[in-house]
């Protein structure tokens, strides 16, 4: 009932009021180290959005390059600019949601702060939204062009796989589900905000999955530009993150995205472990099996630590010498986890004799234990 109302109650926004134009469009710009791009982006928005009552909301995660300072200086001279400076937090998705919730315009767009998205399609997107026949307009990167421009071939493959998965979950067919460039009505996000994950980058897919199945999506194609200043923060993580979000939703949101990430890294660890063990068995047959096993365990543990540091807990990442004590703590935790794993598995096996039930239960206890210790001690917020 409410969902239906959500999609049909499209009140045409008032364009002007007694005191000048009402705000119609908020352009949300998540930033991390984009100081060199902000002014340029603002100038371009000003050019293409002429005649529209718009504002730019920069949501900055306390970038060391002073992005928020630049944005606030801009804001001091132009009321169309606002800046939310978030401290001790990292994450594109969370930043976008916060920007949207801080806006009061009926429509909002999300655009990267690095000028890679083509702002000149914004008026066309707004036109479609005003028409009231669509709920979301996605800026989709043109395929052929994406290759030669900003998008690498591997990301193209990932993007195609992603489209299939999204279609499976939402019945919405879009060519660029990983897009970070779109426009929609603010009430759509206000309604699903408590369900959205603030972990990771994949905000568009999250909105689509959390919204009613009847959501109407349109696409406007554009050419993804090359980044000129600053550097990309997402890289191959985008794919991990995407899969993470999909698994989180497949389990009906019961498993937190960070736990899913931790378990995904753990599965990679198992593969690494077996590969190293197999290689050692053929390459150094003279070494006894238990030494080979210990070596494989160490390699897998190092790999898991690095991946968790880079991916699962990227917002609390250790750098430099601080990696050492963190790794020591992680190793001890994993050691206890292995003992618990083996203990539970043998206990169940003794009573049940079902090897796979015992094995799975052991793994489950091990993963949950390692996750709990990692989240509350190794990468605890208070330790950062
Ligand atoms: N607030 C905040 N916090 N902003 C962030 C963070 C963060 O932790 N990480 C990145 N950003 C900002 C960047 O400053 C930039 O404005 C935008 O988010 C996109 O980040 P990039 O680092 O430029 O991403 P990309 O170009 O590699 O990725 C593009 O393609 C992805 C799909 O392949 C983007 O368009 C993504 O949105 C898209 O998902
Ligand atoms: Mn970029």
Describe this structure in words.
The chain is built from 14 helices and nine strands. The protein is an alpha/beta fold and 384 residues long. It folds into two domains: 4-231, Spore Coat Polysaccharide Biosynthesis Protein SpsA, Chain A, CATH 3.90.550; 257-383, no CATH class. Helix 7 (153-170) runs parallel beside helix 10 (237-250). The chain is elongated. The model is unreliable at 1-9 and 144-148 (pLDDT under 50). Guanosine-5'-diphosphate-alpha-D-mannose binds next to strand 3, strand 4 and helix 4.
Describe the secondary structure blueprint for this structure.
Blueprint: H1 2-8, E1 16-17, E2 20-21, E3 25-31, H2 38-48, E4 54-60, H3 67-77, E5 81-85, H4 92-101, E6 107-110, H5 122-130, E7 136-141, H6 143-148, H7 153-170, E8 182-185, H8 186-192, H9 203-210, E9 217-222, H10 237-250, H11 257-283, H12 289-312, H13 323-352, H14 355-378
Parallel strand pairs: 3-4, 3-6, 4-5, 7-9
Antiparallel strand pairs: 1-2, 6-8, 7-8
The structure holds guanosine-5'-diphosphate-alpha-D-mannose and manganese (II) ion.
Low-confidence stretches: 1-9, 144-148
Please tell me what the overall shape is: elongated
The percent of residues in helical segments reads 40-55%
Report the CATH superfamily of the largest domain: Spore Coat Polysaccharide Biosynthesis Protein SpsA, Chain A
CATH architecture of the largest domain: Alpha-Beta Complex
CATH fold title of the largest domain: Spore Coat Polysaccharide Biosynthesis Protein SpsA, Chain A
How do the SSEs run, as a string of H and E? HEEEHEHEHEHEHHEHHEHHHHH
């Amino acid at each position: 009932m409410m969902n239906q109302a959500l999609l049909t109650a499209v009140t045409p926004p008032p364009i002007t009021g007694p005191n000048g134009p009402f705000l119609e469009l908020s352009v949300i710009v998540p930033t991390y180290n984009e100081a060199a791009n902000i002014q340029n982006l603002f100038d371009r928005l000003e050019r293409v959005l002429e005649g529209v009552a718009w504002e730019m909301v920069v949501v900055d995660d306390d970038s060391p390059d002073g992005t928020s300072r630049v944005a606030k200086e801009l804001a001091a001279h132009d009321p169309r600019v606002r800046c939310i400076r978030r401290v001790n937090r990292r994450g594109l998705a969370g930043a976008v949601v916060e920007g949207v919730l801080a806006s009061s315009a009926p429509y909002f767009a999300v655009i990267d702060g690095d000028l890679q998205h083509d702002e000149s399609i914004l008026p066309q997107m707004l036109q479609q939204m005003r028409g009231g026949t669509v709920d979301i307009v996605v800026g989709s990167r043109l395929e052929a062009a994406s290759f030669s421009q900003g998008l690498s071939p591997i990301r193209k493959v990932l993007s195609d796989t992603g489209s299939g998965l999204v279609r499976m979950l939402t019945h919405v067919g879009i060519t660029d589900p990983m897009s970070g460039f779109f426009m929609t009505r603010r009430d759509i996000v206000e309604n699903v905000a408590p369900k959205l994950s603030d972990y990771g980058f994949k905000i568009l897919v999250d909105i689509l999955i959390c919204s009613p199945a009847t959501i109407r999506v349109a696409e406007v194609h554009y050419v993804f530009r090359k980044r000129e200043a600053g550097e990309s923060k997402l890289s191959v993580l985008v794919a991990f993150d995407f899969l993470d979000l999909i698994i989180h939703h497949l389990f009906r949101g019961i498993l937190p995205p960070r736990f899913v990430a931790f378990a995904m890294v753990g599965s990679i660890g198992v593969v690494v472990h077996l590969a190293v063990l197999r290689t050692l068995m053929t390459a150094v047959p003279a070494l006894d099996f238990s030494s080979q096993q210990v070596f494989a365990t160490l390699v897998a543990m190092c790999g898991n630590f690095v991946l968790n540091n880079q991916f699962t807990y990227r917002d609390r990442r250790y750098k430099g010498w601080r990696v050492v004590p963190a790794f020591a703590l992680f190793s001890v935790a994993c050691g206890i986890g292995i003992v618990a794993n083996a203990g539970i598995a043998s206990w169940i096996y003794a009573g049940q004799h079902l090897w796979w039930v015992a094995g799975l239960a052991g793994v489950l206890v091990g993963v949950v234990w390692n996750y709990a210790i990692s989240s509350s001690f190794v990468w605890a917020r208070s330790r950062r």
